[in-house]
Write a structure and sequence with these properties.
347 residues, Rossmann fold, 5-stranded mixed barrel
């Protein structure tokens, strides 16, 4: 039989258009944005991040709390997953050696502590998620305290809606009174400590029921303080270089640690020491919002008022000059203006 033409009327005629090509199912399958529902996913808390692997605590409230190692799902490849994140995990969540779970979703975050490379860089680097408190650790000496760096931490905390606190270490080496006077106008809880006098109970009482991120310049004693609060933390400690006056970076990663005491528990997040802290991402209105008494007065300011000393017809400046805020008014205004100026300056 001839397939391409025949003199026999009973035989069908075919040409190349009649040949049916078998499709490639993978190449011709329509793309879809639908993703698995992951109804079997369980909740977890990211404790640390290390080169694409995430230590996650699961069954935190189920009585079988344990740590697992996870990777991120492909659909989250453009999303930053950081210490403190609450996530959804599938796969092997037994925590057995050699097993690997998979993070498939990041739950809504209550706060984000961020920094930028410098004040002109709008690209933010997320440090931790869901912290509601920040402890700024600074040394009274060795290394010398840096007011502007502390100001930057405070601005970042206020922008994120995080309550800041201040711990001054090495009180036995220098009197921190003059340094602390710069922060007199702030509603800021301050703790001071010396070599043999660390107020662990007072600091610890503030940690219960909270997630608290600890930040500070290298060499100020931050890791030493965390080791005292969390005895099994095992955070590396270092010393200050006698020539440069700078501390050595001892904490190389951000890690979340459980704080426990008789009155309850909380989470302590240790971060690597830094020497600069960019604020390119900050919304300056958040700084004013932290000064509730001054924010009310600002409603009477002209549109676009900077609230700085040279701002014309600033209602806050006028109220302080007239004594309407009492003896504390000038210190409050000075703190606000210093933080607003800090936001506008380079490190």
């Amino acid at each position: 039989m001839s397939w391409f033409g025949s003199d026999d009327d009973d035989e069908p005629e075919f040409d190349e258009s009649d040949v049916r090509v078998r499709p490639n199912p993978k190449a011709n399958r329509p793309r879809t944005k639908r993703r698995p529902a992951h109804d079997d996913a369980i909740s977890g808390l990211v404790l640390s991040v290390d080169r694409g692997r995430y230590a996650v605590l699961v069954d935190e409230d189920g009585g079988d709390e344990h740590e697992i190692v996870t990777s991120r799902a492909r659909e989250l490849r453009t999303n930053a997953i950081v210490t403190g994140d609450r996530v959804r995990v599938v796969g092997d969540t037994s925590g057995a050696e050699g097993t690997l779970g998979r993070i498939v979703a990041i739950e809504d975050r209550s706060t984000l502590l961020r920094r930028s490379a410098d004040d002109t860089d709008k690209v933010e680097r997320v440090i931790v998620a869901n912290a509601d408190q920040m402890v700024v650790v600074v040394a009274a000496a060795d290394p010398e305290p840096r007011q502007r760096l502390v100001d930057r931490y405070l601005v970042a905390a206020l922008d994120a809606g995080i309550r800041p606190m201040l711990v001054v270490t090495k009180r036995d080496l220098a009197d921190p009174s003059e340094f602390l006077s710069h922060f007199a106008g702030l509603d800021l809880e301050v703790f001071t400590s010396g070599r043999d006098d660390v107020p662990l109970e007072r600091i610890g009482a503030e940690l219960v029921g909270h997630t608290t991120v600890f930040v500070g310049h290298s060499g100020v004693g931050k890791s030493t303080l965390i080791n005292a609060l969390v005895p099994d933390a095992g955070r590396a400690t270092g010393h200050v270089n006698e020539v440069t006056g700078r501390g050595r970076h001892t904490s190389s990663s951000t890690v979340s640690l459980r704080y426990r005491e008789a009155g309850g528990s909380g989470w302590v997040i240790d971060t690597p020491g830094v020497r600069s802290f960019g604020l390119g991402h900050v919304d300056p209105t958040h700084i004013l919002d932290a000064f509730t008494d001054l924010a009310e007065l600002a409603e009477e300011c002209p549109r676009g008022c900077t609230h700085l000393p040279d701002a014309p017809d600033c209602a806050i400046v006028e109220a302080v000059a007239e004594g309407r805020l009492g003896d504390r008014g000038p210190a409050r205004l000075d703190s606000l203006q210093r933080l607003l100026t800090t936001f506008r300056l380079s490190p």
